[in-house]
Amino acid sequence: MTENGAEERWSEADRQSIAAQGLTIEEVGRQLALFRRGVPSVRLNRPCVAGDGIVVIPESERPSLLAACEEARRTHRLMKFVPASGAASRMFREWYRCFAAGGFADEAARTAFAGVLKRYAFFPDLRATITAAGEDLESLIGKGEDAAILKSVLTEEGLNYGCLPKALLKFHAYPEGSRTALEEHLVEAALYARDAENVSRVHFTVSREHESAVRTLLSRIIRDYESRLDTVFAVGISTQDPATDTIAVDPENRPFRDERGKPVFRPGGHGSLLRNLNLLDEEIIFLKNIDNTVPDRLKTETSLWKKLLAGCLIRLQQEIFASVRLLAGGGGTEEELERIRDFAEKRVNIGFSTGFRELSVAERRSFLFRKLNRPLRVCGMVKNEGEPGGGPFWVEDADGRGGASRASLQIIEESQIDRNDPKQRAVWSSATHFNPVDLVCGVRDFDGRKFDLPAFIDPATVAITRKSEKGRELLALERPGLWNGSMAFWNTVFVEVPIATFNPVKTVTDLLRPQHLPFGRTP
User: Contact, 29 vs 6, CB < 8 A?
Assistant: First the structure.
């Protein structure tokens, strides 16, 4: 096989399978070459900290930023974009293990489970499901029949929570009834993605297998929420394009084939959703994960910081657009170019080689235009308190001039670094903040034209992971992460936000944290 995989011997049936997937022989060959070469590690320069890569908003600036957000609400089309395709199976990993074992390992674990069960927002639904099956939930709890209860939570004979997406799980309890994660994001959208015409736009990406169930829920609840929140919802739903799937390989880097001999393709990770994001028409897009949401009593602070992030983006865009218009028109005196260079370096985190000032005026103007005329993201970062996930770093990258190296702002996962390098491990461990996936994105240029977002991907930042299918080991290729490599060449600003804005639900027991319970305590 050559470097681009072009000499892989494909049968006619293989070619038909590849075409049916929406892929080309050349693209599959490129993917196979990535497996063969391996993925290069990123080189961390230093962690982003407050004052060096992370902006801390002074209290005195908040009113002007909120005013900028309000102005954007009147003049721009805003949208909330929520990746919501992930199944909840990992949330229930421990419960699945206990279910497979026939129940909890000891009486203490069984008692603990029974003691907290009523605190879950889905408890009323669980009771109703068990009653419909001719059983009594309290009786099952009293007899210690935890396996039967787990079966009713996890399987299709009950709530089927083990197979549903997180979007459809009941997260929070209210006097009028419990809400799913999807419903909580609708309420959030009305708080900060409502435009001057009272339209609240939100877009969910879902898996094909769950699209019908999501649409059914929305059709049942949407009018009630519009009445309750005095808004009109414009809800979009999209699924991951099959053409973003990637080929799997066996441990020898040969195409992995199923029992019928067909090449196997797998979803390319959340980086595949860049195509969904790229199809949206809105100008300002809030991006947040489906499992990061809170009850109404805590939404005020969440909404405040979303508006502050949007205000930062709008104010920065205004300055960028003014500079880019000047550069595009061929203007820019020596003094003006120096001012733009200083702004780009200090406010937009663009690096400059030591020889920049030696370039001609035309070369400097062209360089500044190319660097500033890009999509912009303002990303909230929270102080590191031990939560898992990626973080903000200054990352070294070659600028194409004599191999000189400079650093850019990136969101990095631990899997992207060389963990065998003690210096890189030390930089990673010294991080003060981590990424809660809390972004506001500006995706149009100074003339209002949409950026072609795939043009700003770093294709080298893919990930190779070990998986299995029916007991056979395979290697899977994940596309550059949506907020990692897929946005690697966006202009980036990190802003410190409070930990109260980050409340993810990674395991079912996270729903028992105070921030997810009514009034912050056991009901």
Answer: yes
